[in-house]
Write a structure and sequence with these properties.
Structural class: alpha+beta
Shape: elongated
Radius of gyration: 16 Å
Number of helices: 1
């Protein structure tokens, strides 16, 4: 019951922030954009295209269309 209550509070908070204009940056698998992403690591990969976000360490956010926090990501490089 406690977990269900906490999940409901979290969901309502996320909805309230979204109504005010806070949006998460969807970065995983997208092309690297230095205006939205902060590359903190490079990973060699044959499956992922070059300069593509391989994984996200910390989610980024925009507020009313302006960057609030850049997403911290790993970027794929050729082997």
């Amino acid at each position: 019951e406690y977990t269900r209550g906490m999940n409901l509070i979290h969901q309502r908070m996320v909805e309230a922030l979204a109504k005010l204009g806070l949006e998460p940056i969807d970065a995983d698998g997208k092309p690297f954009d230095p205006n939205l992403h902060n590359a903190i690591d490079r990973v060699e990969s044959a499956e992922i295209e070059e300069d593509t976000v391989a994984s996200v360490y910390q989610r980024g956010y925009t507020f009313k269309g302006r960057l609030l926090r850049a997403a911290m990501v790993r970027v794929a490089v050729p082997q």
